[in-house]
């Protein structure tokens, strides 16, 4: 989702972050998939750095300084029961956005069989847990069906991305409140405002 911010506003979102071994495995798979159909030099393609890979749980949009402060202070209470999330990948494929179809190449995940309702068990149940807090629910911008994914690349125009089906176990060992910042030299970077996890 791409929303412009005015001075004094902050683009915030809540996300699951993969551990180092998951990032290494996905990087190897991305390299293989590129070899089978996508050039890394493809004009207009922006490759997401592995340190920025995440599953967005909720996008909070353009928040004020006061809202940013409130959410930062809420963080420890929001995440206190987090013990990690494990998922199995399904494919690396074009991932349609409502307004920008086929401009994203992403890792998608297999549906969980008999998904546990405890909020520590899955991205969906963690999203529901976070949305139970009124300070978050009032700000959430993405009310569409939740489809956990990790964005690998973005294109300025619709693409015929290659699809590669594969199944590997992924571990998301941290959960965080992040701010998306556009840096003129480094592009989009993510600043952690509050983070919790077993690896910390």
TrEMBL record:
It is an enzyme of class 3 (hydrolase). A motif (HXTX 2) lies at residues 149-152. Its EC number is 3.1.4.58. A motif (HXTX 1) lies at residues 54-57. It comes from Kushneria phosphatilytica. This is RNA 2',3'-cyclic phosphodiesterase. Belongs to the 2H phosphoesterase superfamily. ThpR family. The lineage of its organism: Bacteria, Pseudomonadati, Pseudomonadota, Gammaproteobacteria, Oceanospirillales. The active site is at 54 (proton donor), 149 (proton acceptor). InterPro entries: Cyclic_Pdiesterase (IPR009097), RNA_CPDase (IPR004175). It catalyses: a 3'-end 2',3'-cyclophospho-ribonucleotide-RNA + H2O = a 3'-end 2'-phospho-ribonucleotide-RNA + H(+). One of its GO terms (molecular function) is RNA 2',3'-cyclic 3'-phosphodiesterase activity. Keywords: Hydrolase. PANTHER family: RNA 2',3'-CYCLIC PHOSPHODIESTERASE. Hydrolyzes RNA 2',3'-cyclic phosphodiester to an RNA 2'-phosphomonoester.
């Amino acid at each position: 989702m791409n929303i412009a911010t005015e001075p004094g506003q902050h683009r915030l979102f809540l996300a699951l972050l993969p551990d180092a071994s998951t990032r290494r495995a996905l990087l190897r798979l991305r390299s293989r998939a590129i070899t089978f159909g996508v050039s890394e030099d493809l004009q207009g393609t922006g490759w997401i750095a592995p340190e920025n890979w995440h599953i967005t749980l909720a996008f909070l949009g353009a928040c004020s300084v006061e809202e940013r402060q409130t959410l930062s202070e809420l963080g420890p209470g929001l995440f206190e029961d987090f013990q990690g999330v494990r998922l199995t990948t399904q494919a690396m494929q074009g991932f349609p956005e409502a307004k920008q179809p086929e401009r994203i190449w992403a890792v998608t995940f297999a549906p969980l069989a008999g998904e546990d309702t405890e909020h520590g068990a899955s991205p969906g149940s963690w999203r529901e847990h976070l949305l139970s807090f009124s300070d978050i629910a009032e700000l959430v911008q993405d009310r569409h069906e939740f489809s956990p994914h990790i964005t690998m690349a973005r294109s300025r125009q619709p693409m015929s991305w290659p699809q590669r089906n594969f199944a590997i176990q992924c571990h998301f060992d941290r959960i965080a409140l992040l701010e998306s910042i556009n840096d003129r030299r480094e592009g989009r970077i993510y600043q952690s405002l509050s983070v919790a996890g077993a690896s910390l």
